[in-house]
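Render this sequence as a predicted structure.
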Amino acid sequence: MRRLIAGLAALTTSLAVYAQTDPAQLAAAREKAQVCVACHGPDGNSQNPDYPILAGQSWRYIYIELRDFKEGRRSDPQMSPMAATLSQEDMIALGNFFAAQKPAPIKFQADGAKVEAGRKTSDAVLCPMCHLGGFVGQNEIPRVAGQYPQYVKKQLQDFKARRRTNDAGNMTSVAATLSDTDIENLSQYIANLN
């Protein structure tokens, strides 16, 4: 058990060393991120509601998701091959680059009644406990505020149907309690947050 704890501490420390915003490192990461622009948009501000906004996301969340795509814990026909060739340093650099970008507001016309219903559902199932108030995220918990409602809806449906399971069971447990109407309302509420 001590070895496991020591190993985890060493890994956390080595990853923390990489979590930098050094201008030279960010410039190099910008070069690596150019391939991401086609789907995720300039500086991580996706213009396509099928792809998430990466700007402002925590570097740790991006790193973990890229690692999960590479190692098969998460699967997507586009992302899995993209992540397959990335090194740990590449994933950390991309995480740092997108974390340093400012998220832009999406073009989205919210339905006020759905937004209010989504807020109530969020409070009832304790979403802010992990995603924090305003859904700004923390560490491995993603920032979902201002994400496209289509993307949020798909992810919640995938967690509910267990098509996405790289969450240690947390989101699959929550999503299992949500109706389709709850998911629609939550997607509207979350997209409405900036």
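Summary. The domain at 20-99 is CATH 1.10.760.10 (Cytochrome Bc1 Complex; Chain D, domain 2). The chain has two domains: 20-99, 112-192.
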